[in-house]
Amino acid sequence: MPTSKVHPARSVVPAAKAKTSNSPSAGKGLPRKAKPKAAKRPSRDLNEKPAATKPKGAAAKPTLLAGGNPQIAKADGDAPVQAYIAAMPGWKSDVGRRLDALIVRTVPGVRKAVKWNTPFYGIEGQGWFLGFHCLTKYVKVAFFRGTSLRPAPPGESKQKEVRYLDIHEDDKLDEKQLATWIEQAASIPGWNGGSPRLYGGIPL
After folding, report:
1. Residue 93: which CATH number?
2. pLDDT at 36
């Protein structure tokens, strides 16, 4: 009987299956793309105050016309007069406040308005007796019936009845004399407010 050849047993190792891209370990060993680093937020000083922002709807400052005179829309009442005084430049604003306070104190219930960029003061039904206006080097106070006052204010006018008092920065304001003029002016019929010939916003 022929003997059969016995072949040595070979171990068969199954071939490794190719790893698919779906495998969680796919691409292991390959360099990964670096994630972009988030930009660093600038450090903030806790003591630093936030920048001031302009309140929404805040009113713009009035334009200053020739001589630094504030441009204020025509209107009746105290509010436009106070807006004018607040906008008077430099030392002139203090003069405006003193004039306004003196007039109110001397003539309780005085009527106020701004016309032709000038504060006006008057008596209801009797007309306007005084106005003032900013010029380059002084504040010009106009008494519309100034020639009727005693003594008459020193500044002359091209308009027959008007007299002026010019107040400069270094002038000492004689409030006692000014109050006397204001009281007299308020006691007589004033200017009716018709369109005047104007010098710097006030009647000539």
Report:
1. 3.90.1150.200
2. 58
CA distance 30 to 33: 10
pTM: predicted TM-score of the whole model, two decimal places: 0.68
Hey, how many other C-beta atoms are within 10 angstroms of the C-beta on 96? 23
35 occurs within a structural domain: no
Q: Is residue 10 part of a domain?
A: no
Number of compact structural domains in the chain: 1
| Angle between helical axes of 91-106 and 175-186 (0-180°, round to 10) | 50
Going 39 to 45 to 50 to 51, the CA torsion angle's sign is negative
CA–CA distance, 41 with 32 (Å, rounded to integer): 26
Q: Are 78 and 112 in contact, with CB atoms under 8 Å apart?
A: yes
Q: Which residues of the chain have pLDDT under 70?
A: 1-59, 193-204
pLDDT of residue 94: 97
- Residue 151 CA to residue 113 CA, distance in Å, equals 27
In a domain, 36, yes or no: no
Note down the domain range covering 156: 66-190
